[in-house]
Specification:
With 192 residues, the chain is an all-alpha fold. It is 60% helix and 0% strand. Helix 1 (2-9) runs antiparallel to helix 8, helix 3 (30-42) crosses helix 5 (74-90) and helix 7 runs antiparallel to helix 8 (158-183). The model has no long low-confidence stretch (mean pLDDT 89).
Length: 192
């Protein structure tokens, strides 16, 4: 599946190189991106509510209500670290290695509520279930933020901006597919 989708989207070593070349300029923007994402997540009660219960692996005071949630709450900072690490990996992974694609697949799988996501840090921990609509919207929102930051970056020329935006777009569509494959049950069509 990964080979097919990657080939179909024409995600090549040129795209990986564009992401890698942009890493020194994009990495400093990760905190801004993460804060923007979490500001959005906390602005909707449907997404904010998922951050009130104690988060798996978090040690510290948990909020008792939506009113206690903020970007500075220790539990939200804990969650923000995961997103920051993920975004950092997008501009640094070796896309020639299948382990990079396996990582992206596990990211999709772990949000479906399965007990065995394939991640060691999730082993023997309660299942994590995030509805697909929220995962899909988050990917689109992250892309929107990153594209805006790339387009308005003053140290990148137009050719580089175009290459990075195209590479990021392809990669996040591939990531979206790696979410969808674990959520959407395909049905076989039957001939009458």
């Amino acid at each position: 599946r990964i080979s097919y989708t990657r080939d179909f989207m024409e995600f090549t070593s040129v795209d990986a190189a564009a992401l890698h070349a942009a890493k020194p300029l994009l990495t400093p923007l990760i905190p801004l991106v993460v804060d923007t994402v979490y500001t959005k997540l906390l602005s909707f009660s449907i997404t904010a509510a998922s951050f009130v219960p104690r988060q798996t692996g978090y040690i510290g005071p948990s909020p008792t209500s939506l009113n206690e949630l903020s970007l500075e709450h220790p539990q939200i900072k804990f969650r923000k670290d995961f997103l920051a690490d993920y975004i950092g990996k997008l501009v640094s992974m070796d896309y020639e290695e299948m382990t990079s694609w396996e990582y992206l697949d596990k990211v999709g799988r772990m949000h479906t509520g399965v007990e065995d996501s394939g991640f060691k840090h999730r082993a023997k921990k309660p299942a994590l279930r995030v509805e697909y609509v929220h995962c899909q919207l988050l990917l689109g929102y992250v892309e929107d933020i990153l594209v805006e930051q790339i387009v308005k970056h003053t140290e990148l020329d137009l050719k580089t901006k175009t290459a990075v935006v195209k590479a990021l777009n392809k990669l996040l569509w591939l990531q979206n597919d790696l979410f969808a494959r674990h959520y959407i049950q395909e049905t076989e069509s039957r001939s009458s």
